[in-house]
Amino acid sequence: MSDRRYSRADLKGELPDAHFIDGARCKAVSRETFPTIDPSTEETLASVARGRDGDIDLAVRAADHAQRGEWRNMTPAERGRLMFKLADALEADAERFALLETLDVGKPVKESLGDVRGVCATLRYNAGAADKMEGSTIPLGPSFIDFTMLEPVGVTAHIVPWNYPLGMVARSVAPALAAGCTAVVKPAEQSPLTALAFAELCHSCGFPPGVVNVVAGYGEEAGAALVAHPLVRGITFTGSVATGRKIYMNAAQGLKPAVLELGGKNPMIVLEDADLERAAFDAVDGAFGNSGQVCSSSSRFLLQRSIAEEFLGRLAANAKKLGVGPGLDNLDLGPLISQQQYDKVQTYLAAGRSSGARVRLGGGRPPSLERGYFVAPTIIDQVDAGNVLAREEVFGPVAVAQVFDSVAEATQLANGLGYGLVSGVYSQDISQALKLARDLEAGSVWINGWFIGGVQAPTGGVKDSGIGRERGLPGIRNYLSIKNVGIRL
Ligand code: NAI
Ligand code: MG
Questions:
Q1: Within 13 Å of residue 325, how many CA atoms lie on the same side as its CB?
Q2: How far apart are CA 257 and CA 323, in angstroms?
Q3: Is the minimum distance from the CB of 395 to ligand 1 under 6 angstroms?
Q4: Is 221 exposed, middle or buried (0-12, 13-18, 19+ CB in 10 A)?
Q5: Catalytic residue among 111, 120, 295, 393
Q6: In terms of DSSP H, where are the helices of 7-155?
Q7: What pTM did the predictor assign?
Q8: Phi and psi based region of residue 372 (left: phi greater than 0; alpha: psi -120 to 50; beta: remaining)
Q9: pLDDT band for position 2 (50/70/90)?
């Protein structure tokens, strides 16, 4: 592989460390800061403004002012034009954003560059849709005309995790802007840098002050204050089930709608007639991409008994080729995000070992990497259905395999957990695969491929995996409220 290595010096310009509120950088009201860490080196990268109620209040008021003023008075096409301009500006600045992301979360630069390209696509999709969100006319007979108007819900809150920091900002902010809403973003405390840079870029592209605001800080401080602020009219959250529950309860106090994307324990079901080469190829990225810190990762392999050994052999052979190292080295996998996440994954690995499951590959820190939160790609099989490794979201590079005999048993195993984000089926028998697509309890079903879809296809979960859908046109409808207008003739 001849991917370029980078160094810290390739990042031209400073690290953003201030909130971005009402079109300007600003320090925390309290003047406090918190550290964001480079997980490849465990060193502090920057001390960033630590937001609390006061900072959130400034940002939400700015967003409310913009919502009622300049932003509301622009035509949808003008909003779209600004968003296209933003996509072009981000594309031109892709390397800087990618390096900021890599330093802050450890992912290889090529992955960060891919994420930035994805953000450009997200901006353009939503930009193009800004003037195409139409209401309907309702037939009430000869004496009436009745129609619906779609209106922006108002100020929207975006609480974002650390696995795709910029991608998650764009995933919910772009449709909110297309709908005519304004936004206050609370990035994860582990990864605030690209969100802060993004708000500045919006401003330099001509977005009116207050349309996109970013307040950095901790969840219990800035995040909770944002959810509770009375001027916030919609909430979008991606992260853990436990935090999602808290946010939903707090949102209920203000009767605010919330879109919640809460992760999964996603089964990849491989039937005995599957194209095993394809399945084992997809499984590498599915299980280990972004070091497994992906809500839709293929974190559970359900393998029909007759092909289980062959599949696992192929998967292990592919996984052994993955290079693990610091994000700037631009290999295949970087570290986990934090000491906390590293410890969590180690705890799962220890539980797996003591339960009688077999570690086929990896299982700990790669020997050559002494610093940084690195875990080698790990494959664990002979896991029974009651094992925590088969039931809980590990959020690390850990592939867990279970064996089944009949399709009915596979369906039962797949549907047997509280999660329901993604299920995947590998089979050459399309009718069998479609039957499973119908029977699997999940927001998405992927057949003979993993990570299918992009900005156009709606994503989200059922059961504990969340509420609502993002991406596609449903993603924009989250930020529109329906007003019915009835006229007696
Ligand atoms: P988290 O869900 O606590 O954090 C996500 C975001 O929510 C962050 O911006 C955080 O500051 C904010 N937050 C936390 N508490 C809040 C509160 N009371 N009110 C408002 N905002 C709040 O996730 P955490 O602790 O970083 O990771 C724990 C686990 O969550 C991971 O191990 C993983 O299993 C899962 N996770 C899932 C993600 C997904 O994509 N579905 C993304 C990140 C984590
Ligand atoms: Mg960081």
A1: 13
A2: 43
A3: yes
A4: buried
A5: 295
A6: 53-68, 70-73, 76-92, 94-105, 109-129
A7: 0.98
A8: left
A9: low
